């Protein structure tokens, strides 16, 4: 469901509105208590089936820094990070996501998180000693959308290695940028995230108001997480930032040199949504990792919300390069608080893949262009 | 005055502390009322003596976008901006700064600004129609440090041109990043800015605790403004961001091609403080403009505060290249609310220029290195 | 036909040999007279059907410099060029290539060109006043492979604009790099070009010795021209260089901003062959233009010849991204000296497209890998 | 001595002529026999006093690849090289240059080298087994200018690591680009090098015709070597190339991180001469190494020769940044064939340092500008 009134078309082909043009007929109730004050996405806990293989990918290939490791888990951080980790690789029987973890502003925000999710009837677990090394008092929940979310304030500080250029590789990852979640009902998920204090920055819709994806933020970038329409709850990707575009190209070059080019799923390219430069990789378990750089500041409360037409062939790739189908269909399982995979619910609304490619779907390079200009041959 | 206890030396040679290691014996009283909630530095109003010459510099050379102009003023913005302007060039008899303007979170924050500065005994002026085109209800003050500060929420939205790559130049400026102010007593100024809600991210001190400069932020970058020790109140520079380092090099190349290389005052180089890549230019009136890219995220409330030793030759330039003396001594006048230049008060504490170069001063490349390693020949 | 004896496999997966591992059973006779001493590929004369549309593409979008123009033709050069032009756009009824033009070392080399091609029984035409503006005494031939080749020494010098950074765009084209020709029998064509003084730098073969393409040079880069196996004689592309990779990305970004992303046929990416970074565009007539940067020095007479396995999925794109089928099948007609399109002869040997993709073909990421690792989903 | 007739001033401020505008009253006789056909500068043999310290600099910091090493010498190459080495570090008592080594086109060119230098009365030594590992039959001479030159064709091939992106560092050096020699009489040296088959590409002169430096090439870049006016024979620097400018910045950043920023003598910056991006470093013995990227193609026989006015402040640095005095005055000793340092002869003509800076000298940003615009404060 959408509310596209008052939208303005820009000279770049997308629309802007003052408020997120998304509404839902099936909302999760808004809690009566305040949401925790979330600072930013802070780390993801990934379950991997072969710890050595994952270490090779994240440490030897991507160059993340090992803060700490043991036989069951590896704690990794990016070069500009000062908290203990941005990624936990934990050995387990089924590749999945154990936690999307956010840092909150104060210790008291953990009490707020408990109250917020408890009122929603969610399962909530709090551990004073934390769920992973390096993190203290933490709250984990099974959220109303089925995702395992974590909140923490207390964390071990480690050295920010930003100035340690002797440690940089050509593809150096400097920050965790965002998560991306797959969920069947994007408007419902978006409304819930707005209640949690997130603000929408961009979305993809069609003229009937079907919403295919929405991006939302706490820190003033395009997103801390996004909701991608599809069978879910699943994890679409976790994204790390580089300083410049050539750093992303260097990762591709290195994967070629290591004869691992089949780990490159999509890209590199320029996103329409977010205006960032991107690359999607698949880790040894098929977890998707985005490498990302140079989106824009979104911190003003009236930051214009951008809406892309799902038929605009430049929305996902500004250069009109095709999106590989697996990027739409594949994603990682998520775990409940007992460590069991959550059941995946099928999306019933239109799929972006179907409406943009193939028998019934279409895309255009120039709106209204009768020839479409869509690079079909590149896809089929 | 400083509080360097509990500082930890990093492997990069600087120190980190949990809280800003700055204290003052001569504080401006902390108001009893809350400070306005400042979002970010938003624009600077510069008085220029030759509007055509300034237009050539900022529009034709630097490529800022003209939102609006008339015979007396030009309103300019960067490519990723959606508010009316980031820079106002206003024709006037004396080159100076008329306003350091910040955007606040809500309209009600203007009431807070009035109360905050009124309690401090400052001159405060509020105009519902704004002081410049494109801006609505605004408050201007002569702050306790002598600077003309502005606060506003209401602003005309214009198109964010971030996706308009057909308009990009090789040196495209995408954001306003920060201001930099010259003031005689840095600890006193820092304490005042902390009361206004800023948080210190980095500073430069000596072992006696003399503070030579401090950087402080509202948005989660290294700074929205910095306090540089020197004769003041004066404006040291205003800084715009590029996406990548080559964009900054392209500006240098273009200035060479236009035979305007003498507009390059210092750089390009890598800062120690902020870890950003930088360039300093002088506009036709001698107003200093920094071009800046790639500092780091500072948005967590416990972001480690970095303290540099004033004798560390890599603090101002990570490559140890010398700082040209004019960069320390020259700065722009600032105006009071009647448009008259403020009197400049002489700094009485040690000057950074003096303690690092010349007869009594020294710098080192490696702390404790007897040979110093300072690139003296490059400076004297 | 191939001679792969004595080849050595490198740690990068391709092979090197001392001499070009290409032989032909059907050679064009080697002339008894010496070949002209060719310096470099110098310009291409393109016939375009809509001069204004082509001007918009090459001048407004790609930023080539207009040396001279009239109602029938436009003479364009790159920023580092000092001869009159690197590209002539001439208005005509059928989109085609009128000349692949090479500069020779001395005026006397024109006599050698006449003798060389005359002995081969080719049609040869010499004009003291040149065939285009800016060029003096020139020889044009219909070569034994059916291509219109030109040779000249005398040329008007124009200003090299390399230092004019005020004229640079973000995607600035600085040099003409190479041509690429489509011909049915690559070994036969290669042998002929070797007689003309070219040296092979790289090729693509299969284990039976079928040659799919070969790259050859006069100036010490990977190529001045390449022979691509396919129905020919046709022109595959003409390539211009940028300084850096971000310049190529900027061209993509600009095409997106202009809603011309469907002009991007393939890329950007990293070539296996040549190790260069690339992008392929289609001009308004469908002429293919490559943007290219950073291959390697090949000027030593014993420069190792690189042979790629046609089944190596990183040969055409080091990152394993798929080659769009049109890139293999589409090419521009070439003209005879009367301006009539040459008949296109069908290639009878295996096609690279067929042997690498689809029912019978295959590619691998890692040689010997049973799972292949080929990114099939991305292509089919 | 100069021949500046027929020079044309360009829009970039320098002059172009058809032939090198340099003449000498005191020429070395032109041999009656042909010069060897030189391909390119191939390697330098450096004597270093502390092999471990030099290894740390060239291998650990700069990332050159060790082809082979023993207790007395280290053989290093760049990533795109296929011959055994581009640099030999040989342990010895006095830091100096033992050989400027060039590769020739054929084995027979060694006979030509012997005849050429023998006729000039130079000391000539030929060794069938080579003077260093990896090189076969070689000729070393003490040339008429006092420099130890080597010529070879036979060389061991090693793997070109250009595609091995897993081995690249952020500051990867991909090619040896050129040498630079200090000699008292530049016109005399230039004339001799022209006899040896070099062609001048650029020079620096004053209006009286004093020549301060000249650049000359065999391969089609701006130079294989340059003659810098000063006390000589000495070696000014040896230069390696990177692919892009950010690679050079990364070397600076790494030196800062290693607290070795005092190894940065000058730069980074954009040269006027050559239009390349540059950085000058000093190795542990004070041997100067340039890191260099992106000059232009010079391979045509009528490539325009560029002459810069010595008073043009953008000739050495296009951005007008000052040249540190040590860059003009310091250089490495060169050895005779017995391994003894050659005597250094004082230059008697004007020094570039003196005529451009200080009491009698001057520079301008804009020719004819009365205010000069020279960034004096930056230097004195």
Automatic annotation (TrEMBL), chains A, B, C, D:
It comes from the Bacteria. InterPro entries: DHPA_dOase_Mn/Fe (IPR011981), Glyas_Bleomycin-R_OHBP_Dase (IPR029068), Glyas_Fos-R_dOase_dom (IPR004360), GlyoxalaseI/FosfomycinResist (IPR050383), HPCD_C_sf (IPR044904), VOC_core (IPR037523), Xdiol_ring_cleave_dOase_1/2 (IPR000486). The keyword Membrane does not apply. Gene3D superfamilies: 2,3-Dihydroxybiphenyl 1,2-Dioxygenase, domain 1, homoprotocatechuate 2,3-dioxygenase domains. Keywords: Aromatic hydrocarbons catabolism, Dioxygenase, Iron, Metal-binding, Oxidoreductase. Its EC number is 1.13.11.15. GO terms for molecular function: 3,4-dihydroxyphenylacetate 2,3-dioxygenase activity; ferrous iron binding. Its cofactor is Fe(2+). It holds the Pfam family Glyoxalase. Residues 40-154, 175-294 form the VOC domain. The keyword Iron applies. It is an enzyme of class 1 (oxidoreductase). Belongs to the extradiol ring-cleavage dioxygenase family. PANTHER family: GLYOXALASE FAMILY PROTEIN. This is 3,4-dihydroxyphenylacetate 2,3-dioxygenase.
């Amino acid at each position: 469901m959408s509310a596209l009134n008052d939208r303005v078309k820009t000279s770049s082909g997308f629309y802007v509105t003052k408020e997120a043009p998304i509404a839902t007929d099936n909302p999760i109730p808004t809690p009566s208590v305040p949401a925790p004050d979330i600072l930013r996405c802070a780390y993801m806990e990934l379950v991997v089936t072969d710890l050595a293989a994952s270490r090779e990918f994240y440490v030897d290939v991507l160059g993340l820094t090992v803060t700490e490791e043991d036989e069951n888990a590896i704690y990794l951080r990016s070069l500009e990070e000062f908290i203990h980790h941005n990624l936990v690789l934990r050995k387990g029987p089924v590749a999945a996501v154990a936690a999307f973890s956010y840092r909150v502003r104060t210790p008291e925000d953990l009490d707020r998180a408990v109250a917020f999710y408890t009122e929603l009837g969610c399962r909530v677990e709090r551990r004073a000693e934390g769920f992973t090394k390096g993190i203290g008092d933490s709250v984990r929940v099974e959220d109303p959308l089925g995702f395992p979310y974590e909140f923490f304030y207390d964390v071990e500080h480690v050295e920010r290695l930003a100035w340690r250029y002797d440690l940089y590789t050509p593809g150096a990852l400097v920050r965790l940028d965002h998560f991306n979640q797959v969920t069947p009902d994007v408007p419902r998920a978006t409304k819930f995230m707005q209640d949690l204090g997130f603000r929408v920055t961009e979305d993809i819709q069609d003229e009937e108001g079907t919403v295919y994806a929405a991006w939302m933020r706490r820190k003033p970038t395009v997103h801390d997480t996004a909701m991608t329409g599809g069978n879910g709850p699943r994890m679409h990707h976790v994204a790390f930032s580089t300083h410049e575009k050539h750093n992303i190209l260097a990762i591709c070059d290195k994967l070629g040199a290591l004869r691992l080019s089949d780990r490159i799923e999509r890209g590199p390219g320029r996103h329409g949504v977010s205006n960032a430069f991107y690359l999607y990789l698949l880790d040894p378990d098929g977890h998707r990792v985005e490498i990302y750089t140079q989106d824009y500041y979104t911190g003003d409360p009236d930051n214009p919300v951008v809406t892309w037409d799902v038929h605009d062939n430049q929305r996902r790739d500004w250069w009109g390069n095709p999106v590989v189908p697996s990027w739409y269909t594949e994603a990682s399982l998520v775990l409940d608080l007992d460590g069991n995979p959550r059941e995946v619910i099928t999306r019933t609304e239109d799929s972006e893949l179907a409406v943009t490619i193939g028998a019934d779907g279409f895309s255009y390079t120039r709106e209204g262009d009768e020839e479409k200009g869509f690079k079909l041959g590149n896809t089929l």
